[in-house]
């Protein structure tokens, strides 16, 4: 890259004393929070942070910024002066860690190297400095292992196999039982692995070690697992990572040293208490990797009360300062406590709701902030079914309840199989001794994760909580043999790959076979039938009730339901719906009415057609009477018939077989033959772009007027019964104002006739769906004949993208998601740049023509959390979604109002 193309970056390196928690864009989450803890006077090892801007220059150009080396050298000199040591000097070496730290937490997805500065010369100085030869050689072997895998790309299994061989030779089971002589031999073996696999010697120059490690961290931003995690979590790909260079403190200096992870509240339940894991004589990677089983943090009080008391005080300080659950990494070096990291901790859905309300009660946050601490996706998780605890299914083990949920699937023992089977439609449970970052794709594919090692702070637990994935960790009774693809449970029973197991992430229980499920207590609450049960369930329901209440008071968007019958309407109302935004009348034409519809389609004369419509009218009217009764006092938007007529006729293959069989047997088949002829007549190459929607009403005389009459008569009957029907008539698939004008003129005439016949004044709003690009582009004209717009974003997405949803989701969407063309399916979350632009344009143009134009959305996006925020921003009046998603939409509408500048927070 030429010199004049390199962007100017003012400052590339910040000392921990220079930053603060609000500089996450520049310093990453880890660096910003290390600076914040330093500012608070907490015991943080000195160090400095290389900014995300430096990373972005490197990733864009392939070269580090020209000024970076000099800035790093200046900060390293200052660090050496502060510590009274020089990096890697033989007699009294300074050692540092090089760790990643993006703006958003990506646990285990990028690289870390500890103990940088150790070499064949400085290892002896470290031994003398610590008075512990074993510790020095253990630290050296860790450096070569991490550096070899992370920086030089050596297969990590080769180091693990050499370590296992050393333990077998010594006849010990854990690495802490290897002495200094054993570890010296292991260092030699590790260096030989590096030489053979990397084609070079392990670097003895400490500055070269540090520089190569910094580059490796930069490169890890674009590693496969990091990119996959960002796609899964919808983290932008252009942020880059900061790099933190921190003076080493050692938890592997003996029994008075150790390392741990702590939470200021339980990340699984939200309950207050002492939560975390501690491991004596270990470095931090040992805890999160889950390779040695930890002890509960509470036991630290007996091991080292001074450090425990200091840690409890720091945890309280951090929670009050951040006003949230904090996740803390710490090391104790010979009785001295050091803080290595803090961040707002990942938590389960249930914990998120409980903690938000707890913090409100403590006066740390207000209701608006509480709404920002939870998400619609978390609420949806809480509405999933749970295991029936009374079911008679064999429990075979119990581990740590790391991430809640009820997961059932076939046991698989590696990520490749999990992905392969999942893509074939199988539900799987990923079973491992412990997971590592390379297992991410399998964790995403699996219904749940089960490990025999690790605790609530292990890699499996942290990542599963972040993804909302069911997880049970540390089920020590289970012997997991990944090579033989099997798991042995207490009693000797063997679970082979492919056997069905069930795991309960709320209790930690593991079962053989499939456990039946029961409704979530949150769903029972919304249904109005919450039973008196466990205190925990009652507490969760209370937290959800309060948060939804906050949202309802603050949101501007109203939330309606997509419902086609009285039963769905009543359920939607229990879930908090403020009306029906989409009643699909085609669903009323199925079942025992199909024969009447067939007669309508087959009618050869006007008289036959009118007779069929006459028979359908009272049935349609009865449907609407029940619907208006269920939604009394709330708006009900009825969409007139939309799908192609062939959908109401038998399958062409089935009909052809019936006709052929009847002819071969010389049986009567006149009706089937007429149906077959009609199917052929109505056949279209692209039926969703053919004779449907408003086009049906224009070419089949009387069809739409029959439906309008049924709506009007039903509304009149409800008014006569002292009801309050608020019907709205929606014309589908309009592409030009002329179509709407013709249908509207006929509808207005029918409504006037019903008003005259019943002596009842009806106020039936008439509007249209905006589901074609042309409708969006000519919305100003269409608004002249429409009192409301409802955006049909399902069809609008299909027509904007040129996708047939039923075909493309099964054929190439997976590849598009994997290649990063989509961050998420445009049918799941609205495509703001394309479809969203049309929605915004149509909303603006429609209201310019008719300022009081009511705007809503009735596609599936109406219940998608991210899409709800978009609809709030563009000024829609309501969203409509399936009954089950109504609470999610209510919550997100409140969150959108809080986030939106100038919200009236009503």
TrEMBL record:
Q: What is its EC number?
A: 2.7.9.1
Q: Name the SUPFAM superfamilies for this protein.
A: Glutathione synthetase ATP-binding domain-like, Phosphoenolpyruvate/pyruvate domain, Phosphohistidine domain
Q: Which cofactor does it need?
A: Mg(2+)
Keywords, comma-separated and alphabetical:
ATP-binding, Kinase, Magnesium, Metal-binding, Nucleotide-binding, Pyruvate, Transferase
Please state every residue range assigned to the domain named Pyruvate phosphate dikinase AMP/ATP-binding. 65-293, 300-350
PEP-utilising enzyme mobile domain location, by residue? 426-508
Listed under catalytic activity are: pyruvate + phosphate + ATP = phosphoenolpyruvate + AMP + diphosphate + H(+)
Q: What molecular function terms (GO) are annotated for this protein?
A: pyruvate, phosphate dikinase activity
Q: Which residues form the PEP-utilising enzyme C-terminal domain?
A: 551-894
What protein family is recorded?
A: Belongs to the PEP-utilizing enzyme family.
Protein name (database record): Pyruvate, phosphate dikinase
């Amino acid at each position: 890259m030429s010199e004049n193309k390199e962007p100017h970056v003012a400052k590339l390196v910040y000392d921990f004393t220079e930053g603060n928690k609000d500089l996450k864009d520049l310093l990453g989450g880890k660096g910003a929070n290390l600076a914040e803890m330093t500012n608070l006077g907490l015991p943080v090892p000195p160090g400095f942070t290389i900014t995300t801007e430096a990373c972005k220059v490197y990733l864009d150009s392939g070269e580090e910024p020209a000024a970076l080396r000099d800035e790093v050298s200046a900060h390293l000199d200052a660090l050496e002066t502060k510590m009274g040591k020089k990096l890697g000097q033989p007699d009294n070496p300074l050692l540092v860690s090089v760790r990643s730290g993006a703006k958003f937490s990506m646990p285990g997805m990028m690289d870390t190297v500890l103990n940088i500065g150790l070499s064949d010369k400085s290892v002896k100085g470290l031994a003398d400095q610590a008075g512990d030869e074993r510790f020095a050689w253990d630290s050296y072997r860790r450096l070569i292992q991490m550096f070899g895998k992370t920086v030089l790309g050596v297969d990590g299994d080769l180091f693990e196999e050499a370590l296992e061989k050393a333990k077998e030779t010594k006849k010990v089971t854990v690495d802490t039982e290897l002495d200094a002589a054993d570890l010296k031999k292991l260092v030699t073996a590790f260096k030989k692995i590096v030489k053979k696999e990397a084609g070079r010697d392990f670097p003895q120059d400490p500055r070269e070690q540090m520089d190569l490690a910094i580059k490796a961290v930069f490169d890890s931003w674009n590693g496969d697992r990091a990119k996959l995690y960002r796609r899964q979590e919808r983290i932008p790909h252009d942020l880059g990572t900061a790099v933190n260079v921190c003076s080493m403190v050692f938890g592997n200096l003996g029994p008075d040293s150790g390392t741990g992870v702590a939470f200021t509240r339980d990340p699984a339940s939200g309950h207050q208490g002492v939560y975390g894991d501690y491991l004596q004589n270990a470095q931090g990677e040992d805890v999160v990797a889950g390779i040695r089983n930890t002890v509960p943090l509470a036991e630290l009080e007996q091991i080292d009360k001074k450090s425990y008391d200091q840690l409890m005080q720091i945890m309280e300080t951090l929670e009050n300062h951040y006003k949230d659950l904090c996740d803390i990494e710490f090391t104790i070096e010979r009785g001295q406590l050091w803080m290595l990291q803090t961040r707002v901790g990942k938590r389960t859905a249930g914990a998120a709701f409980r903690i938000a309300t707890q913090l409100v009660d403590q006066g740390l946050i207000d209701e608006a902030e509480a709404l920002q601490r939870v998400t619609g996706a978390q609420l949806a998780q809480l509405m999933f079914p749970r295991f029936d605890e009374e079911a008679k299914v064999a429990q075979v083990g119990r581990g740590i309840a790391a991430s809640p949920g009820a997961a059932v699937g076939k046991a698989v023992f590696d990520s490749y199989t999990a992905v392969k089977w999942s893509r074939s439609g199988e539900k799987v449970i990923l079973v491992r001794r412990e997971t590592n970052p390379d297992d991410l794709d399998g964790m995403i594919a699996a219904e749940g994760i089960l490990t025999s090692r690790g605790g609530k702070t292990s890699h499996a637990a942290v990542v599963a909580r972040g993804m909302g994935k069911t997880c049970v960790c540390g089920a020590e009774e289970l012997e997991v043999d990944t090579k033989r693809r099997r798991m042995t449970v207490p009693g000797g029973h063997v679970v082979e790959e492919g056997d069905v197991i069930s795991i309960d992430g709320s209790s930690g229980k593991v079962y053989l076979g499939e456990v039946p499920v029961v409704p979530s207590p949150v769903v029972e609450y919304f249904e109005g039938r919450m039973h008196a049960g466990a205190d925990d369930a009652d507490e969760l329901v209370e937290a959800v009730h309060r948060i939804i209440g906050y949202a309802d008071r603050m949101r501007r968007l109203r939330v309606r339901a997509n419902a086609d019958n009285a039963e769905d309407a009543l359920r939607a109302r229990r879930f908090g719906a403020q009306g029906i935004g989409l009643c699909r009348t085609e669903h009323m034409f199925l079942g025992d009415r199909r024969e009447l519809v067939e007669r309508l389609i087959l009618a050869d004369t006007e008289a036959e057609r009118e007779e069929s419509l006459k028979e359908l009218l009272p049935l349609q009217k009865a449907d609407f009477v029940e619907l208006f009764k269920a939604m009394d006092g709330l708006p009900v938007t009825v969409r007139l018939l939309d799908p192609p007529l062939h959908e109401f006729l038998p399958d062409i293959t089935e009909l052809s077989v019936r006709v052929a069989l009847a002819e071969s047997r010389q049986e009567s088949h006149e009706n089937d033959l007429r149906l077959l002829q009609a199917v052929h007549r109505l056949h279209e190459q692209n039926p969703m772009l053919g004779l449907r929607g408003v086009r049906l009403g224009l070419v089949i005389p009387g069809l739409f007027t029959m439906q309008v009459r049924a709506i009007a008569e039903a509304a009149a009957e409800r008014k006569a019964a002292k009801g309050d029907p608020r019907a709205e008539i929606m014309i589908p698939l309009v592409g030009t104002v002329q179509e709407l004008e013709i249908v509207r003129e006929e509808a207005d005439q029918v409504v006037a006739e019903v008003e005259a016949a019943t002596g009842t004044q009806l106020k039936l709003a008439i509007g249209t769906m905006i589901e074609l690009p042309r409708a969006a582009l000519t919305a100003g004209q269409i608004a002249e004949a429409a009192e409301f717009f409802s955006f049909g974003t399902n069809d609008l997405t299909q027509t904007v993208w040129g996708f047939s949803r039923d075909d493309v989701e099964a054929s190439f969407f997976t590849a598009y998601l994997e290649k990063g063309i989509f961050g998420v399916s445009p049918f799941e979350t609205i495509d703001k740049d394309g479809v969203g632009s049309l929605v915004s344009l149509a909303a603006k143009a429609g209201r310019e023509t008719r300022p009081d134009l009511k705007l809503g959305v009735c596609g599936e996006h109406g219940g998608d959390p991210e899409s709800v925020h978009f609809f709030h921003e563009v000024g829609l009046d309501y969203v409509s979604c399936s009954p089950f998603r109504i609470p999610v939409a209510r919550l997100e509408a409140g969150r959108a109002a809080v986030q939106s500048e100038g919200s009236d927070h009503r």
